[in-house]
Write a structure and sequence with these properties.
This protein is an alpha/beta fold. Helix content is 36%, strand content 20%.
Amino acid sequence: MKTMETAEQIKQMVREKYSEIALQDKETNMSSCCGATSCSDPIYNIMTDDYSQVDGYNPDADLGLGCGLPTQFAKIEPGDTVIDLGSGAGNDCFIARHETGAFGKVIGIDFTEAMVALARTNAETRGFNNVEFRLGDIENMPVSNEVADVVVSNCVLNLVPDKKAVIADIMRVLKPGGHFSISDVVLVGELPDALQKDAEMYAGCVSGAIQKSDYLRFIEEAGFKNITVQKEKAIRIPSDILSRYLDAEGVDSFVHGSTGIFSVTVYAEKEGIKTLHPEADTEQVKACCPPNAGCC
């Protein structure tokens, strides 16, 4: 169990690293492990998924830091209020905005000032008035109780020392009947100590990950229902990165051992009846029907 001091040190390290990442271009970020480690050609695009065919995608807001496409699975409906945890430059928020429409709202939360500033600039440049970005911790979101229909997040919880606190706060901010879809990095088997302890690898998403079984158990213990793994893919760390932390024997043992690192997208629901958005439904009908043509 990490002490509070250790947890705060990790958070400060991640904050500093992601402040640097906010100033890097997408190619630099995507050629590393979540933008945080130095370049390795084989790792290019292993963590990230291709957003190019997703409606609402804005390439300028994509820093290449994700490990999935949570918005693709999030079942966002017109009029929904969506919260994105660890919103970065705004990529998933802008896709969520496309889904929730003019009557919906998207709130991005990030604890890195540079990321919040970058995301706000991206939103203002595009005239996205129903997207806002707030500075704060996702273990204690600057959001009132029961305001969100949907919560999304992309490769962020693995960076947070107290994952149970994040999951509990997701439960707090979701409306009854609301749900989340979160992409994250999890483990099957134990990482070597050298990887687990290294700060740079922690900022690079891998050593901050927990066991898949624990991850799902935390969600169940928080009271969520209908827990589903929507997508899962294996992540391979190239040998040139592993060799910075392990000797040759350690690299061989890790590569050919039973330990697995996976990107998963997990869906779960809060009990209750989902709020309807009749004003959004009405607006959709208006948008798709010519004058005097009746309902489409």
